[in-house]
Amino acid sequence: MRNLSTLGQLESKRVLLRCDLNVPIDNGVISDDGRIRASLPTIKYLIDQGAKVIICSHLGRPDGARVEKYSLRQIAKRLSELLDQPVSFSKDCVGREASNQVSILENKDVLLLENLRFHAAETSDSETERHDFAADLAELADVYVGDGFGVLHRKQASVYEIASLLPAAAGYLVEKELSVLEQLVRSDSHPYTVVLGGSKVSDKLGVISALLPRVDNLLIGGGMVFTFLAALGHKVGKSLLEESQIDTVKGYLEQAKSLGVNIVLPTDIVMASTFSADAEHLEAQVDELEQTSFGASGIGLDIGPVSAGVFADIISTSKLCFWNGPMGVFEFASFSKGTRSVAEALTKVQGLGVVGGGDSAAAVRALGFEDRAFGHISTGGGASLEYLEGKSLPGLEVLA
Ligand code: AMP
């Protein structure tokens, strides 16, 4: 992979930096600025080099329309605070407005361009449209730096096509994320534990089959656990269930047995009367999920306390641990305990404990954990999973 040093002298150069500043915003307030902070090392390096720094990113899914709530203007303010220097803003990411803003940049100045996805061409299926849009972006700069780790698995104009139009290199965030992922793929540290949760088992099939031969323990929680429990013959009430995946899951359970992998499923579950924050709830054994007072209409919304303790013991005594996906509906306080136990245990790993991006990263911050408590918090859930699955990431291919 080409790194920043391959770009040579950057003083006075216009550098187009693709970041992933797609942060959660609630009612106009950034609720987690992790991705902005993770982008700072490369931005600061470019400033130190005396470059004119032009940052582009997406925010949300405006689908090619100008949607004010997805404007990056709100990010410029936070970025400026974190950098402790002014950050100018261009109301469009291409065209006259953008080139005017670029033309007045001095060395060490930082400009943030408006949301790339206000233009449908950024994510278009048409290669020509993407290429033409990338060419418009390329006009603004002399070199390109790809540092949007969370979008590397996307074949999009500002991630993929652009890198063939300008001298290009990967930024520090991409380098750091990859070095952690490489350890997860190649390290010989044991015990190696992978913890998977979240809503859908179908999103995690690739990573399960790629990692099964490498790990000692595979712990399953979250909504996806009910497909595993159903595969073992348990009744799961109205809990999340992907019936079409039951046979695949049975195959994994068999494979794990023959590989000697310890697949650990919860033995108790927090069952709720409805899917809501203030739902009535109680703990039940996995073979009695339909025998609570909620009958067959109960919904499993978290792993139970006994299981949370078992998971925590296995995690905290691991040397290498990767966790992706909350253990329950952590957004509701009553169903966040399993996720909290897993997060706490991950901070105790005597080796490398990795939070695999997306909802797990949001969960640990929402539950009040400090970033530095973990070995690494990835900024890209989808990109991390695809890398661990062994898929090639388009945004990385072009920086090879
Ligand atoms: P994912 O995007 O697949 O990682 O899923 C994250 C989402 O899974 C979170 O919003 C959780 O609320 C949700 N989730 C976790 N456990 C459960 C469960 N038992 N039932 C329904 N949703 C769940």
UniProtKB/TrEMBL annotation:
Pathway of action: Carbohydrate degradation; glycolysis; pyruvate from D-glyceraldehyde 3-phosphate: step 2/5
> Cross-referenced InterPro entries, in alphabetical order?
Phosphoglycerate_kinase, Phosphoglycerate_kinase_CS, Phosphoglycerate_kinase_N, Phosphoglycerate_kinase_sf
The protein's enzyme class: transferase
Upper lineage: unclassified sequences, metagenomes, ecological metagenomes
According to the UniProt entry, what is the EC number of this protein?
Answer: 2.7.2.3
Instruction: State the name under which the record lists this protein.
Output: phosphoglycerate kinase
Catalysed reactions listed for this entry: (2R)-3-phosphoglycerate + ATP = (2R)-3-phospho-glyceroyl phosphate + ADP
The UniProt entry's sequence similarity note says: Belongs to the phosphoglycerate kinase family.
The alphabetical list of record keywords is: ATP-binding, Cytoplasm, Glycolysis, Kinase, Nucleotide-binding, Transferase
PROSITE patterns according to UniProt: PGLYCERATE_KINASE
**Membrane-spanning parts:** none
Identify the HAMAP family for this entry.
Answer: Phosphoglyc_kinase
User: Its Gene Ontology molecular function terms?
Assistant: ADP binding; ATP binding; phosphoglycerate kinase activity
What does the subunit comment say?
Answer: Monomer.
Gene Ontology annotations for the cellular component aspect, listed alphabetically:
cytosol
**Which GO biological-process labels does this protein carry?**
gluconeogenesis; glycolytic process
Question: Which Pfam families does its entry note?
Answer: PGK (PF00162)
